[in-house]
Amino acid sequence: MATKTSARSTARAGKAPGYRCAECGWTTAKWVGRCGECQAWGTVEEVGAVVARTTAAATVLEPARPIADVDATHASFLPTGASELDRVLGGGLVPGAVILLAGEPGVGKSTLLLDVAAKVAGARETGAAGARDVLYVTGEESAAQVKLRAERIGAVAPRLFLAAETDLAQALGHVEKLEPQLLIVDSVQTLSSPEVDGSAGGVSQVREVAASLIAAAKRRNMTTLLVGHVTKDGSIAGPRLLEHLVDVVCQFEGERHSRLRLLRAVKNRYGPTDEVGCFDLTEAGILSVTDPSGLFVSRTREPVSGTCITVTMEGRRPLLAEVQSLLAESAAGQPRRATSGLDSSRVAMLLAVLQQRAGCLLHKDDSYVATVGGVKLSEPATDLAVALAVASAKSRIALPERLIAFGEVGLAGEVRPVPGINRRIQEAHRLGFTHAVVPASPTGPGEVPEGFKVREVAHVAEALELLIPGS
Fold first, then answer.
1. What does this protein do (predicted)?
2. pLDDT of residue 236
3. Do β-strands 365-371 and 337-340 pair in parallel, antiparallel, or remain unpaired?
């Protein structure tokens, strides 16, 4: 009897209950409140048993080669025909790469990928070396629903194949039979494997689906595009391990009331992560916008007080945006501070700086500060434009035409240098602007285009005296 009890105790000791972090996949033999890998709280859940195992060395099928002897031509970029997507990816699609595209519902992820699929499959002239077979696996819609959207945006191609599947094995079966050069899965959270416990979209299922698709992509040298859902806080749903496994992670962003969509690369093994692609989402499809600056600048016949044009950097791309301000005498004891497209706390700080450092009395005025076109400006370089717009609204004097301003404003009223001063000036000159107010920098603004005037300022009061005499 004692021997049986000892055996059962030994079995329990060898197979202790296992716990796994839902975010990163870290495992432990006992429950803890905080993950030891990603430091997230409340994400460790019981998943079964943790059994210690070792793997013996196997016979090498293909010996390791010197890196100089590896042929890199098989990993060259293939253009997609969508210039803004190619810009973000670093040149196009890389054979064997796995790309994760995440975004909020209704932002246009499926429309973008269906458009890209049709271009790669040869529906339109792409500039690429011939059409290629594309498999579009949809788990959220039927094949007929995808066909309707494809007809609406003109994305019907003879080499574009559709499969409505939610079973991972069936989806891999389509890949085995068709052998496509490009696979699109919409979305990775809708596929599931019967061999893994849990419902579709769960941590275990997403991990298994991603691992199987990535293995197939690498083995077949097949480019794979995965659509990922996001949570209410904007992060990608599922385990954090998913972002580590894929080669490229892209975020598709946009306001519901605006047609403009921005594509950002959060992770990119084949190119830069500071590029931004701009798209215009219309009823007829989605189009690349190579020059989006005009979308963020209003058109008025005469200069209006309370407006100022600035140049913000979205990744490597300079974009012109307009800041508007309106001041009205407050009827309440506490003035109202309202913002749209700008950080409210930063705007409140700039209002305090204007009052204390530049003598612009704003404590009795309701202030409304907003951007044009629904663009969100979070870069500190827009501080000087916000300050000039508010001062212009207070004095009711319009700023000069064809003038831009950018620079970070500190609590002491100083105007600090920002990155890319010369690049911003060149973009403003390209779009017809002739004057710029920029921060004073030890290296200067760099090479200034002919006929373009640049005024460097070191303090916000200096900028106000220059543009609005007597302020």
1. Plays a role in repairing double-strand DNA breaks, probably involving stabilizing or processing branched DNA or blocked replication forks.
2. 82
3. parallel
> Which residues form the domain of 275?
74-290
| pLDDT tens sequence across 403-461 | 999 999 999 999 999 999 999 999 999 999 999 999 998 888 889 999 999 999 999 99
Residue at 164 is within a domain: yes
Q: What's the maximum distance between 2 C-alpha atoms anywhere in the chain?
A: 99
CB proximity list for 283: less than 8 A, separation 6 or greater: 152
End-to-end Cα distance, the chain: 96
Amino acid at 26: W
**Radius of gyration for the alpha carbons in the chain, expressed in angstroms and rounded:** 28
Local structure of residue 322 (DSSP, 8 states): E
| Rounded distance between C-alpha atoms, residue 415 and residue 410, angstroms | 6
State whether 116 and 257 are in the same domain.
Answer: yes
Query: Are 332 and 246 contained in the same domain?
Result: no
Final residue in a domain of this structure, among 224, 258, 290: 290
200 to 94, 155, 190, 191: CA distances (angstroms):
29, 29, 6, 6
Buried b / exposed e along 117-147 (16+ C-beta atoms within 10 A): bbbbbbbeebebeebbbbbbbbbebeeeebe
Q: How is residue 9 written in tokens?
A: 């105790």
Domain match, 118 and 250 both: yes
What is the spatial distance between Cα 294 and Cα 313, in angstroms, rounded to a whole number?
15
Contact 287, 260 (CB under 8 A): no
Please tell me the pTM assigned to this model. 0.76
**246 in helix, strand or coil?**
coil
Q: Does residue 325 sit in the same domain as residue 421? A: yes
Q: Which residues are annotated as a binding site for ATP?
A: 103-110
Return d(Cα 305, Cα 324) in angstroms, integer.
9
Do 189 and 252 sit in the same domain of this protein? yes
* Contacts of 231-238 spanning 24+ positions with Cβ under 8 A: 234/104, 236/100, 236/102, 237/189, 237/201, 237/206, 238/188, 238/189, 238/201, 238/203, 238/206, 238/207
Asked whether residue 300 falls in the same domain as residue 351, the answer is yes
Gap between the Cα atoms of 169 and 177, Å rounded: 12
Q: How far is CA 235 from the centre of its chain?
A: 11
What's the CATH code of the domain at 320?
3.30.230.10
pLDDT category, 16, cuts 50, 70, 90?
low
- List the structure tokens of 30: 């006992």
Summarised one tens digit per residue, pLDDT across range 294-336 is: 777 877 778 899 999 999 998 788 999 999 999 999 888 889 9
Annotated binding site: which residue ranges?
A: 103-110
Q: 129-182 pLDDT, tens per residue?
A: 467 899 999 999 999 999 999 999 999 998 999 999 999 999 999 999 999 999
Residues 100 and 126 in one domain: yes
Split into its structural domains, the chain has a count of 3
